[in-house]
C-alpha cells in the first residue's frame, strides 16, 4: 500500500505545478483584476508548503486523544476565512455579514479540532459546532448575503451565486468526510487520499474560478457603496449618487 507520506508529497508537487499555472493565468488578467486573484494563488502556494511539511512528518504535536498537524492547522485557518469571506464580499455584503461568515467558518474549524482531539462532552460539542455552523452559513448565504447580491449588477450577482454554490458544495463534502473520519470509517490511507483530493478541489478549483471571473469585480467594487446600510447590506445603487449608469447595474 502507498504510504500516506507519499500521497502528501505527490499532492505538494501538484500544488506547486498548479500555483505556477494559476500565476500565469493571473498575468493575463487586467491589472485591476489581479489584486483579487493573487490571494488565491497564495492559498495554493501555502497548501504546497503545508502538505509538503506534513508529508515530511514535520509539525505533528500529540494533544488529547489525537494529534495536531501544525502545517495543516495554519493552512486551514488561513484558507477557509478567505474563501468563505470572499464569497460574501462578491455579494457586496456589509462588513458585518462578511465578518459573521468568517467567524462562523472559524468556529466550525475549531469544532473539528475539538471533535478530533477530545472524547466526551467536548468532542460532542465540537461536532455540534460543525453542524450548527453549516446551518448558519446556509442562512447567511441564502438570506442577508443573497439579498445584498440581488442589488449588484447581474454579472456580479451570478458570480456570487456560483461562488456560494461552489464553497457550500465542497465544504459540505468536507463535513461528510469529517463525520466519517471522526467515527473511524476510513483506514489511514483512504482518509488521507480523500482529504487531499477534497482540499485540492477546494483550493485549486476556487482559485481557478476566481481568476476566470475576476474581471466581473473590476469597477463594481468602487461603485457598490460598500458599507453597513440600515438592513445590514450595502447601499443600493440608487443611493450612491445620481449617476444613471450606476442605477442601472
UniProtKB/TrEMBL annotation:
GO cellular component: membrane
Spans traversing the lipid bilayer: 6-26, 38-64, 70-90, 97-115, 121-142, 163-180, 200-218
Highest taxon of the lineage: Archaea
Subcellular location: Membrane
Major subcellular site: membrane
InterPro entries: Arc/bac/fun_rhodopsins (IPR001425)
Keywords associated with the record: Membrane, Transmembrane, Transmembrane helix
Chain spans, region Disordered: 222-249
Protein family per UniProt: Belongs to the archaeal/bacterial/fungal opsin family.
Protein name: Bacteriorhodopsin
